[in-house]
Design a protein that fits this description.
The chain is an alpha/beta fold and 264 residues long. It has nine helices and eight strands. The protein has a single domain, classed as Rossmann fold, CATH 3.40.50. Helix 3 links the parallel strand 5 and strand 6.
Length: 264
């Protein structure tokens, strides 16, 4: 697996196929492994790059500062090293936040973005938001990473017949050093680019599972506030849409980026 030093940290990434660059950005506490179905599909016609963020997967895990903006800076640095001026960017959950950050920091680096089960902010200014963070922190400290990972995975993949997905996701969460996971988790709460949302002109697809943590209406409100965005809903899907519904996810992404490329 290719690896390189990015902003002082060793970053491991998948790099497969040829064509227009397609960047796949994973969620909190997991890795590029979650994009296996997308890599297999899109490498037939695109250059697919799926990094492990710092603090995740096989990449370095420095005991320093973590932030959404920092992850975005790492991805820009990786693009520079790979000679990629701009790319289609797909982000799931935390990866979607990083994509939004990229779109406000350097919009010319994004040909399009596909935001999956994510949004432009994770507030920390209400009792409900604080309760969500406190509940997660308490669960980690009381349960440990293994039991906590199982609990998160069960919530991410609700319904019958999801045990293999739950086991895979729970294993990834459990493998995280607790201190590093906590740093990444805390960095998400209070992050926001809402004040710059209306200025984002990057062609955007908001892709959501109909049973994601936040309702479809919340994503529709984001789309309505943006200049060039549309919404697509994947039925019978929770927060892990690309993993549990790979065919529907791949079709939605491919249709969208082909349309952007044809008009761009």
């Amino acid at each position: 697996m290719p690896e390189t030093e990015v902003n002082g940290v060793n970053m491991v990434f998948a790099d497969e196929g040829r064509g227009e660059p397609l960047l796949l950005l994973h969620g909190l506490g997991v890795s590029r492994r979650d994009w296996a179905s997308q890599i297999d599909h899109f490498r037939q016609g695109w250059r697919v790059i799926a990094p492990d963020f710092r603090g995740h997967g096989d990449s370095g895990k420095p005991d320093g500062h973590y932030s959404v903006a920092g992850h975005a800076a790492d991805i820009f640095a990786l693009m520079d090293q790979l000679g990629i001026a701009s790319a289609h960017v797909v982000g799931l959950s935390m990866g979607g936040m990083v994509a939004f950050q990229m779109a406000v920091d350097a919009p010319h680096r994004l040909r399009s973005m596909i935001i999956i089960n994510s949004g432009p902010a994770l507030p920390n200014d209400s009792f409900a938001a604080k309760k969500m963070l406190w509940t997660r922190l308490l669960s980690i400290h009381l349960l440990g990473m293994k039991a906590y990972g199982r609990k998160v995975a069960e919530k991410m993949f609700p319904g019958e017949g999801r045990e293999p997905l739950i086991a895979l996701f729970a294993e990834q969460i459990a493998s995280n050093p607790k201190r590093i996971y906590l740093k990444n988790l805390k960095s998400l709460f209070g992050w926001s680019v809402l004040d710059r949302l209306a200025g984002i002109a990057t062609p955007t697809l908001m892709l959501t599972g109909d049973r994601d943590y936040s309702p479809v209406a919340a994503k529709q409100a984001v789309v309505a506030a943006m200049q060039n965005a549309r919404l697509a809903v994947v039925a019978d899907s929770g927060h892990g849409t690309p993993i549990e519904k790979p065919r529907e996810t791949n079709e939605a992404i491919e249709t969208f980026i082909r349309g952007v490329s044809a008009t761009g």
